[in-house]
Structures
1.
Amino acid sequence: MKAGFWRFCGKPALLAAALALLLLAAGPGWARSLTVSRPNQQLYQEPSFASSPLKTVPQGAKVTLIRQEGEWYKVDYQGTVGWLHRQAVPEAAPAKVDLSRLIFGGPVAETKSEEVALAGKGFTPEVEAGYRQKNPGLNYAQMDEIESFGVAPAQLEKFIQEGGLNP
Amino acid sequence: MRPAVLGAAALLVAALLLGGCAGVSVPLPAAVQPAADIAVKTGAKAVRASRPISDSEEYYVGRAVGARILARYPLYRNPEVTRYVNEVGLTLARKSSRPHTYRGYHFAVLDTEEPNAFACPGGTILITRGLLKLCDNEDQLAAVLAHEVAHIVHKDGINSISQARWTEVLTTLGSEAARQYGGPAGQLVSLFEDSVEDVFKTIVVNGYSRSAEEKADREAINILRKAGYNPGALAAVLMKMQGKEGAGGIYRTHPPTQERLAKVQALAPATPPTGEELVRAERFKKLEF
């Protein structure tokens, strides 16, 4: 019986079983869903704020993670594929290794845990909190006020048009 | 290859792949292990040394610099003027080669007669009432703001953090203590404080390098052109600042030297205002600052 079992395992069926196991392990990585927890986040064409915004993603929206690159997530939101910054999903745990890329090829260096760990640290809100505690005389209240200043797109368009400027 | 050997090979590959993914190390022969350790350490160091300051880190440094400036000069709270300055500024920023930053561009007016303007890394631009008064019209205000936007585009402020300091930040981040305990380690807060000081010294005390100023002027002229403003307004406003190089404020942080003016005039000479420029000048005149 034992000998029969090993004889079965020695056949190419074992290779198929091993591959099936790998695919099963890779499965959850493909379908990982993230919830956007900040309002009015933008989906960008490239993993950079300098690239063109493709779509606004509202708070609470579910996006499907495709891959991660440093502070950026490539996601699918309602059929639009683009890049979402980490700030939109601050609670998302970093993806360790993209198995699908490992199996089917493509660079995996961008998702190495060392890089993810470094990208997740640095000058963060926590460091700012420590700095503020050490320097209580700084005027962060007015800095917050300035960051709340904005111009509605329609108002900006009107301003540009009235001034004979380029849209 | 016999099927049994093929099966064993497949199992080995699967074990290696899954083991690596799950963080389980595969024992290497003793002779190979030291070399592998060195390779891992060298690789980690290379990652640390190569990572630039991220957009969010630039933002947090910029916020701290802004909070320091605002501790010195209070905000001028006139909603009409604030909205107007943001309208002009955003019209320009969207035409720059860095139209979006981590938390966007914001513009504000400081309540002081001292003429000056500051570009906090990340996109907050502060202009004083003194400098607003120095401008004759909207296009000259746009020229000043376009120059500040250009400093954000070129990351001139954040690049004041020395390479040695940034390397120290990354070394601290990579240290075992930071990895294990995380959080705002005291050393990281001190390094943040020193980085803020580096940037503050450049944008508030000493000013940018001459080459950074000239580059910012060139970008400002491009932005003005793309936005539809008169690019000659930069030369016009620099002319108004001539002869005051020894004074403080903007004359120290953005010295309007003869050489700088000559280069700006060569690119975009001051020209008489057009009809549309006069319309914009009218809305500028209506504001109180």
2.
Amino acid sequence: MKAFIRGAGVVGGFGCRLSSLEEAIRKRPAPDSDPAASGSSTEASAVSTATARTDLLDQLIPPRTLRRVDHYARMAILASHLAREDAGMGNGLPENTGLIVATGMGPTANTLDLQAADVAATDLALSPILFSNSVQNAAAAYISMLLKIRGPSLSINQYEMAVPLAFQTAIDWIEEGRTETVLVGSIDCFSKALHEAALNCRDLKNGNGGQRAAPVGEGSSFFILTRSGTQDIRYPFVRHVLMGGTRRQNGAPIPNTLILHNGAGRNTGFMGHDPVHANFAHLYGTFPTSMGMDVAAAMLLLRTEQLLSISVPQFEAGPAFPENPLICCLKKGETGDWGMIVIGR
Amino acid sequence: MISSMTLKDQLKKLIVEDLNLEHVLPEEIGDDEPLFGDRFGLDSIDAVELVFQLKKHFGVIIKNQGEGRSILQNVNTICAFIEKGQAA
């Protein structure tokens, strides 16, 4: 079953809203552009960062309402509000809308801070505000409350495959008739742990195979999915979500179009295929759920053909652009697992 | 020894920063002004957070809810409790 993308909201190192992402793609389409422009360089480290700002949220929701909300959840709340706004549902989401929030590392920054607490000192050792912001489904709880979501709600925490799993679950919910509309999104926050992981990740180290490293990023992307064919056709569809691994090769069909991936080196070839590929990690950085940003970028590329030719010039020189092009957002894990979200129009 | 005035300023700064009262400046909190209620929007979670922060920053422990209710009324009552605790 395909699912219709009714609206999307993104928050990342490039700014907020799809328009900011589109502008970033237009301005710096090539992955080998100057990475310093995408974020600040982290001193005494081998990685640069692309962090997100959420000031816009204070214009959408009274700051007093958000005073206990940390940066991790603020990014998710802002992206989900922008998705609702983009979908033209500013007055409220449909009844029984479902919510799925995917994360790779969760609010790790808060969790790490709590580790310093003296647990032996019982309840006085923990800040209740810090504790409440350290649990994995904090973002989902805030979004549910603020957007008045009363349908099924789920937080998915899986380091590398959280995004395809979230999209697959959203499509399953729609297909099963559990709900007609799902707000599905992802979020990860820059933290010491992510920085350490980046330092140890060959894809992010500067000078890896002569390739310029993508910055370590953070951000959130949310999409409103509905049963296809029920709404206007402003955006493309989610055609398939496929997942596999070394133990279950379920024969992923590689569309003869374009693969978007996040990371370098290990993602360029896939299952013996060598399709045209592009990488926009220089715009929003690499983080466990940055595949959500790839989905947003794919939406924009399919919406505006001109953007596709600007951002992926090698595509024009390669296969002929099909009438109904597909873009595969591909995530390959360290252990051979892979997930693919195929976007088409 | 921290003077009473400095302690009040410290406490007001702590309340604004640790309870994330972005719409309030420390100097806007009156010494006798009720902390809980409509003006600052503090609630029971803030009370627990304040108990935690008082222990962390001043080493004083509010032992139960009844004690907390009288101590956490305003800046003056909290300062008196801190000074008493630190003198003991």
